[in-house]
């Protein structure tokens, strides 16, 4: 195994670049004669300083501690050019060896001198002020390193007879030897893996002050010490903790990245807006998104990199995938002739030459704020405009920003020192950067918002053609170019991987909840997208509705969903210094006096560790995010000290404070490099043993993420069922596998069981044409006025004679109506809810028998008749399906049924159009699912069930198959004035660690999927209003932040499957939560610190559930029910009765009625509930038998009732049933036919409603009214 590497500090290399000494000596000789020679020189590397630095007084202990763990990655040698001595004396072996330098392998120093002097190295007669520029290096793997270069000029003095005739640089003002002043340039370049442009610029500025005050012989030592200091500064962890270091005379701040996926921002993001108008900024963004060949020009080398980097920040989370060289030296100008996409930067001096010589380039002049295409025919280079709506919003948002710092200072007092002045400027810039980032991200979201609607996640397909159809025609040139770029391809990978990045979060936060409530076929995504964008204009803002309770479910309809509005945070225009919306904490690093002396370096680490520990002691418990950053830093410090086990313990604590910053790759390297003795120690510590197993085993089991992205293509060969299912799902027509199987049967009527590719093409084309017609909505204005909100016309007949007159029959998702010809008016035929009968008959006219459709409605006395002729059979099928679906939806209180019926009807239409055979109607009848159900089984629910049932929702919407609802949790809303959403929520735990969250005030999906592991979830508990704890069968407790909807903490102390988590409501000032696993281990958690307050082990194993009451804990195990004190002291045991033991039954769930002194317990595989008297242990339990019940799965106490979820017999079939038992009479008050599959979970919502979740055959949640 190769030696592991320590995390890199800020410094990779510090290099000194200047002219060749021999050339300078020649110029010096000429200058002594009074001749001024100002020839150009070739720069070369004079010195290189790179970690690890050879420390004086290196202790054996330190050397041994780092023997297995190196400071830097793989290295290679770099040989400086040797100089000939004045006397041609042969150098000895020691001197020769000194010429070889080892540098990180992925950094190429050969081209560095030219980049440090991109305009050439010129000797001058006058001193020139120090100036900076910035470099970006990219290796073959796409990894970037960053350079900050300072160029400074110093006078050259040649002291003859000193230093054996060697030349030296005099940095002091006083010299004894005076010659003609010649100023020679030097450069110091600091290379880092992190883009700290401002911070490293400030550091180099401090270095220059120190060099001016030191003797020339100390110069190299000072630079080496400077480099060593930077190498000791760690990169701050992601989050809101910045590091501050005293570099004398400045305090340097190193900002952290916002999150692990965000870039470090240490530059002024508003610079492009000072150089270009917002419209030109958009044009440049368009050039980048369409991957043009782009060249920036400026007379200021520094601006080239800063401006280019700003545009890279605007692009986030999308990433530029091509060559990125923001500074080209004179020797590199041939790079612009490369045929592929690139982004480069040149000095303005080369602008005219490149404009004449090169073709098909986008030339951006920073100094003049212009964009030009270098092409013989300017029409050959097309820069498409950013989509109009998104561009307008971007410009309006930019106009609200304040870019001029001086205007902010006009009424403020002057700062008394440089530190306060710099802090004030930094805070202003930090706030402005955040606003610019948000506006740029809003632009990206507005451009690509609807991409996810055209993705198939299961097969990783993006239907680009259908996505284009939802864009306005004027935006097509932009999208056609963007969709074929590597940048967009990489963006698609992240979307298909369901990555929760800033794009996903903003897209969710600026979406209306109606999007996830009921997705009807052909929902006009483009029109909805534009309406949404208009709504988020500042002038269209609405105040947020505060919802803190459940709705009246009688008033919730499928198309009457309240729209959730989000406000666009507009820049505060009031005078005064803008403070950052989210303030950062700053940690002051200890000083480093002598960074090249081992003893002082060790003292630095000791003080660093001590300061972090002190900060952690005084940190309030609720600030776990900051605590996690301290753990991260202390872990790094421990690694540098060689204390590997301590480092692993600190990294282990990140799992329960903020797992998002857990450095898994670093931890893996540490574990693999542990010496045998330390590995044995780690195995003896439970938490480290778990860490070792998780990290290393997952590494062995690790499956590389699927990075494929396919474009949808029509099939070219015959398709069997499995291939057909995949193709239909990829097309986005329908995802449900059962529906696709019925479609397969329809398209293969009269053929072998395989679908012809031509038939599929005709079917797909007709479906998409119908979709386009629905979206275009080309109906007379009178008809549009006739339609209700969110009502669309999905099917139009030919002009036919009807009993209402001549016209076209129109079908929406709600009703049928007639568009009368000759006048712009409509006549309603019937709503699907009011239809009583539909018949397909004929009428005699002359010698003809004309097929006629007859509809009987409860809202009209007379029947409606239409001579639909050849269309009659199809309309008959479609209307019957819609009628049956509407009735099913009403009877079962499930609006999704009407959506499914509409899909079936539209599939029938497409099947008939694609087959065009005599068997087309018979084939379409294969899709009559609800009409067939109406014939085969009774659709009406029992009266008691129908009266109690209020609504149904489907957490598996969008999935190919239904998922079981294993656990349910309701969390009430909170009345707050903040902008965050605090509506009541329903949490649904599905299979494989998936959690779906509904807004319980609208029953719309709020969070489609939160992933917490991959195992079955067993329990959920609301903790402290802002957390949900989820116990998994993988032994981990996952903690979800209810505001960010992300899981960033885990508790890993359990070793077996979690069964229950309960909150102690009587714990006093210390908030305690108890968790229990199947092996009988019980942990009492301090909620504030997430530390184990205490723990105990139950005598019994196979625990199935846990409850709390006052100072007692109740545990249900297979053989008994245990009652203990909260300390773990056993008080009482209720054992299984003899008759149940004989049939092999086991206790499964319990409920306690403390006011009645009753303990209710059920057994697995039994229809019997035992009621124990907890005040009289000797009394045998009373039995309650549940008729037609085969298995009890869950129990819930609501008021003075027990709701029992079971698997039972109803209407002669096995179904999920709920028994409502009156506690006082101990009799069944209600028997509810709840689900098609077993009832797996129950939860209460404010004791007003009970919610039940079902098994995978049904996969739905039912909402019941509590009497």
Automatic annotation (TrEMBL):
GO terms for cellular component: cytoplasmic vesicle. Residues 71-502 form the UDENN domain. The keyword Repeat applies. One of its GO terms (molecular function) is guanyl-nucleotide exchange factor activity. PROSITE patterns: DENN. It comes from the Eukaryota. Pfam families: DENN (PF02141), TPR_DENND3 (PF25570), uDENN (PF03456). One of its GO terms (biological process) is regulation of Rab protein signal transduction. Residues 61-97 are annotated as: Disordered. Residues 71-83 have a biased composition (Basic residues). InterPro entries: cDENN_dom, dDENN_dom, DENN_C, DENN_Domain_GEFs, Quinoprotein_ADH-like_sf, TPR_DENND3, Tripartite_DENN, uDENN_dom. Keywords: Cytoplasm, Guanine-nucleotide releasing factor, Phosphoprotein, Repeat, WD repeat. The keyword Transport does not apply. It is found in: Cytoplasm. Forms oligomers. Interacts with 6 of the 7 known isoforms of 14-3-3 proteins. This is DENN domain-containing protein 3. The lineage of its organism: Eukaryota, Metazoa, Chordata, Craniata, Vertebrata.
């Amino acid at each position: 195994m190769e030696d592991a590497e320590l995390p890199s500090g800020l410094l990779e290399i510090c290099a000194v670049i200047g002219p060749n000494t021999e050339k300078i000596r020649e110029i010096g000789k000429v200058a002594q004669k009074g001749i001024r020679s100002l020839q150009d020189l070739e720069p070369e590397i004079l010195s290189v300083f790179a970690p690890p630095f050879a420390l004086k007084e290196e202790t054996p202990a330190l050397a041994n501690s780092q023997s297995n763990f190196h400071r830097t990655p793989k290295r290679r040698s770099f040989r400086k050019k040797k100089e000939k001595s004045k006397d041609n004396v042969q150098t000895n072996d020691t001197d020769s060896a000194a010429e070889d330098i080892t540098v990180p392998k992925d950094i190429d120093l050969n081209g560095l001198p030219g980049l440090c002097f991109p305009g050439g190295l010129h000797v001058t007669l006058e001193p020139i002020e120090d100036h900076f520029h910035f470099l970006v290096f990219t290796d073959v793997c796409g990894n970037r390193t960053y350079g900050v270069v300072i160029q400074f000029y110093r006078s050259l003095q040649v002291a003859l007879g000193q230093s054996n005739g060697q030349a030296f640089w005099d940095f002091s003002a006083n010299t004894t030897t005076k010659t003609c002043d010649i100023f020679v340039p030097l450069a110091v370049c600091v290379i880092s893996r992190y883009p700290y442009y401002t911070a490293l610029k400030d550091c180099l500025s401090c270095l220059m002050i120190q060099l001016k005050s030191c003797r020339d012989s100390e110069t190299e030592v000072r630079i080496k010490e400077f480099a060593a200091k930077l190498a000791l500064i760690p990169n701050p962890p992601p989050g809101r903790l910045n590091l501050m270091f005293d570099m004398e005379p400045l305090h340097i701040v190193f900002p952290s990245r916002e999150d692990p996926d965000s870039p470090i921002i240490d530059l002024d993001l508003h610079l492009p807006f000072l150089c270009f108008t917002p419209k030109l900024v958009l044009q440049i963004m368009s050039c980048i998104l369409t991957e043009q060949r782009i060249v920036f020009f400026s007379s200021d080398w520094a601006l080239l990199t800063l401006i280019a980097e700003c545009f890279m920040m605007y692009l986030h989370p999308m990433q530029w995938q091509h060559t990125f060289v923001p500074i080209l030296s004179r020797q590199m100008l041939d790079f612009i002739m490369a045929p592929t996409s690139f982004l480069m930067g040149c000095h303005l001096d080369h602008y005219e030459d490149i404009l004449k010589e090169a073709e098909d380039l986008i030339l951006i002049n920073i100094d003049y704020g212009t964009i030009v295409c270098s092409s013989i025919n300017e029409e050959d280079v097309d820069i498409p405009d950013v989509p109009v709506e998104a561009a307008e919003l971007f410009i309006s948002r930019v106009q609200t920003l304040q870019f001029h710092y001086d205007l902010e200072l006009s009424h403020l007092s002057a700062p008394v020192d440089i530190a306060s002045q710099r802090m004030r400027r930094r805070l202003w810039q930090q706030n402005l950067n955040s606003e610019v980032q948000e506006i740029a991200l809003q632009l990206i979201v507005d451009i690509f918002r609807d991409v996810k609607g055209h993705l198939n996640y299961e097969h990783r397909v993006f239907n680009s053609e259908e996505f284009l159809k939802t864009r306005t025609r004027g935006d097509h040139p932009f999208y056609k170019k963007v969709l074929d770029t590597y940048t967009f391809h990489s963006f698609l990978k992240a979307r298909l991987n369901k990555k929760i990045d800033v794009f996903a979060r903003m897209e969710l936060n600026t979406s209306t909840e109606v999007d996830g409530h009921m997705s009807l076929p052909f929902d006009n995504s483009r029109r909805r997208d534009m309406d949404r964008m208009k709504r988020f204009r500042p002038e269209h803002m609405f105040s947020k509705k505060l919802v803190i309770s459940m709705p009246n479910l009688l008033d919730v309809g499928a198309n009457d969903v309240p729209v959730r509005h989000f406000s666009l945070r507009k820049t505060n225009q009031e005078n005064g210094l803008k403070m950052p919306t989210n303030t950062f904490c700053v940690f002051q690093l200890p000083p480093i006096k002598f960074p090249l002396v081992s003893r002082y370096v060790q003292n630095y680490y000791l003080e660093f560790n001590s300061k972090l520990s002190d900060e952690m002691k005084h940190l309030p418990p609720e600030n776990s995010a900051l605590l996690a950053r301290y753990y991260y830093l202390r872990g790094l410090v421990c690694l540098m000290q060689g204390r590997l086990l301590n480092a692993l313990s600190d990294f282990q604590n990140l799992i329960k404070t903020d797992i998002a910053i857990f450095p898994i790759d670093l931890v893996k390297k540490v574990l693999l490099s542990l010496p045998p003795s330390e590995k044995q120690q780690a195995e003896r510590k439970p938490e480290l043993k778990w860490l070792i197993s998780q990290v290393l085993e997952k590494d062995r089991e690790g499956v590389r993420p699927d990075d494929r992205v396919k474009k949808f293509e029509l099939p070219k060969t015959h398709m069997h069922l499995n291939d057909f299912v995949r193709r239909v799902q990829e097309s986005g027509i329908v995802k449900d596998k059962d529906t696709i199987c019925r479609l397969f049967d329809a398209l293969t009527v009269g053929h072998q069981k395989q679908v012809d590719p031509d038939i599929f093409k005709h079917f797909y084309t007709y479906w998409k044409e119908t979709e386009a017609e629905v979206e275009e909505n080309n109906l007379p204005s009178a008809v549009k006025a006739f339609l209700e909100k969110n009502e669309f016309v999905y099917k139009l007949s030919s002009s036919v004679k009807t009993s209402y007159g001549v016209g076209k029959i129109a079908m929406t998702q709600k009703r049928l109506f007639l568009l009368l010809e000759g006048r712009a008016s409509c006549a309603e035929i019937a709503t699907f809810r009011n239809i009583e009968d539909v018949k397909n008959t004929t009428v005699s006219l002359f010698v003809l028998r004309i097929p006629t459709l007859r509809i009987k409605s409860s809202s009209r006395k007379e029947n409606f008749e239409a001579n639909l002729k050849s269309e009659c059979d199809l309309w008959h099928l479609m209307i019957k399906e819609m009628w049956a679906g509407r009735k099913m939806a009403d009877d079962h209180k499930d609006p999704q049924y009407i959506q499914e019926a509409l899909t079936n009807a539209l599939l029938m239409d497409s099947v008939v159009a694609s087959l065009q055979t005599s068997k087309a109607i018979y084939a379409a009848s294969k899709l009559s699912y609800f009409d067939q159900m109406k014939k085969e089984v009774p659709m009406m629910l029992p009266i008691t069930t129908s009266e109690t049932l209020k609504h149904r929702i489907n957490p598996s919407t969008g999935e190919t198959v239904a998922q079981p609802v294993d656990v349910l949790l309701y969390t009430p809303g909170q009345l707050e004035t903040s902008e965050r959403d605090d509506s009541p929520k329903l949490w649904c735990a599905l299979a494989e660690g998936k959690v779906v969250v509904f807004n319980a005030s609208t029953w719309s999906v709020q969070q489609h999927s939160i992933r917490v592991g991959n195992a079955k979830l067993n329990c959920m508990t609301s903790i402290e209003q802002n957390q949900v704890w989820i116990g998994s069968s993988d032994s981990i407790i996952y903690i979800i932040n209810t505001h960010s909807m992300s899981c960033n903490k885990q508790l890993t102390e359990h070793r077996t499957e979690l069964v229950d988590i309960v909150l102690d409501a009587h714990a006093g000032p210390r908030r305690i939560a108890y968790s229990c696993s199947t092996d009988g281990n019980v942990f009492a958690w301090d909620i504030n610190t997430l530390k184990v307050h205490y723990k105990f082990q139950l005598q019994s194993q196979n625990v199935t559930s846990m409850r709390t009451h006052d100072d007692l804990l109740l545990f249900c195990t297979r053989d008994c029910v245990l009652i203990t004190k909260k300390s773990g002291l056993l008080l009482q045991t209720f054992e299984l009765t003899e008759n149940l033991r004989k049939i092999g039954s086991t206790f499964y769930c319990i409920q306690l009625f403390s006011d009645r002194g009753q303990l209710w317990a059920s057994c697995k595989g039994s229809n019997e509930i035992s009621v124990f008297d907890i005040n009289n242990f000797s009394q045998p339990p009373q039995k309650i038998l549940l008729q037609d019940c085969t298995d009890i799965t869950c129990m819930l106490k609501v008021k003075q009732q027990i709701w029992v979820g079971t698997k039972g017999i109803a209407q002669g079939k096995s179904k999920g049933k709920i028994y409502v038992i009156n506690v006082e009479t101990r009799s069944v008050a209600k028997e509810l036919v709840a689900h098609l599959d077993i009832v797996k979970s129950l939860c209460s919502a404010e004791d007003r409603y009970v919610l039940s979740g079902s098994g995978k055959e049904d996969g739905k949640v039912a909402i019941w009214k509590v009497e």
